[in-house]
Amino acid sequence: MKNADELRGYRILDGQSVREFIAAQGALAAKLGGRPADWNVREVGDGNLNLVFLIDGAAGTVCVKQALPYVRAAGPSWPMSPERAFFENAYYRSVAAYVGNCIPEIYHYDPQLYCIVMERLSPHIILRQGLIAGMRYPRLAEDLGEFVARACFFTSDFAQPCERKMDGVALFARNQALTRISVDLIFCDPYHSSERNRHTSPYLDERVAQLRADAPLKLAVARMGRKFLTQHEALLHGDLHSGSIMVTPEQTRVIDPEFASYGPIGFDLGAVLGNLLLNWYAQSGHATPADDRVVQRAWILAQSRRFWETFRATFLTLWSTQASGDAYPAAMFADPAEADPLDAARSAYLDSVFADMLGFAACKMIRRIVGFAHVADFDSIPDVSRRAACEEGALRLAHRLLTQPSQFRSLDDVIAALT
Ligand code: SR1
Ligand code: MG
């Protein structure tokens, strides 16, 4: 946590002070147009951590995101360094050159207020809300597969000289407050009785007790946790669930990279896949006589497959055309006779990333059902016993993915295991 000196100049913004802050930035005030007093300001943050203001002027609109010095969902009793805004801004800057318009445009970063002023995404909505409502997005899987492939490849040792990669690792290694959240909330708390946990009680009481006494499961989770801590393959978004993605039918935008750190590529992939699978399990809880959600469920599975296939194909293409880093250095493999063994090595590497993706997806599914932060996919199912049945199915799959990993070599294997 930052001490008082380091927080000098910081204050929590409100509707009036955010207006004054923007009014004092000439270029931003000009972007909004008109008189500051006439701007429409709304605080719309609904996440676990931050304030988010939307400000509309006569000529334009911006989004202002400020990190609070505590966890918003818990209040000041859970202090949290606002420095996360620095890492969010640093992530956007680090990947901007590689991911095109898959991220919002950043207009300004204020290091004292720990706030970012960025493009307001409109008419985009949060993907999770769209999926719950039964919406389909034709570009989603390919956009996300390409996004993860490009952001991870270009920040990895496949593309970067080791000095630059190490500079990146050193910079993001300071994002300790948020890494601590992931370490605790994903890989530890769900597996012992912590007062931060909750689950759909009493329906899942027995299941949760079993899970906390399941040594093979806990060892598998601990193995994934160690991988997360030690395998600094690429710069990760770090929290790429469906609440960190905004969509229209034509566009996909990734937001909220405040958990950014270097880690295993399968971690970001697993966040996307795990949250698609959670949504698949929640669909039956949202079914009505008029809409059984069968087509929606099939669509989600098709997206899961396409997401992985796009990631794999994009990553392999980048590796064979743009490998300028110190991992598998191009100079070592100039002989055309080595093309086949090199391809086989690339394929084996992607298989290991696939296995990581499934392991992390499973960890993320479990933590959203028995841990601190749950997902609206399940929470918005009003009938509690129905909600518990959906959650139970997701826990069963996650358990299998973690304890029987050798049974899952492809997305088809995963899909065949859905019950
Ligand atoms: C205390 S923050 C809880 C969760 O919200 C974020 O979206 C992350 O997933 C984090 O684990
Ligand atoms: Mg977030």
Query: Going across the major beta sheet, what is the strand order?
Result: 1-2-3-7-6
- Strand content of the residues, in percent? 5-15%
Radius of gyration: 22 Å
Number of strands: 12
How would the global form be characterised?
Answer: globular
CATH architecture descriptor text of the largest domain: Alpha-Beta Complex
- Can you count the helices? 15
Give unreliable regions as ranges. none
Structural class: alpha+beta
Overall pLDDT score: 97
Q: By CATH's scheme, which homologous superfamily of the largest domain applies?
A: Aminoglycoside phosphotransferase (APH), C-terminal lobe
The ligands found in this model are: 5-S-methyl-5-thio-alpha-D-ribofuranose, magnesium ion
CATH-derived topology of the largest domain: Aminoglycoside 3'-phosphotransferase, Chain: A, domain 2
Distance between the termini: 44 Å
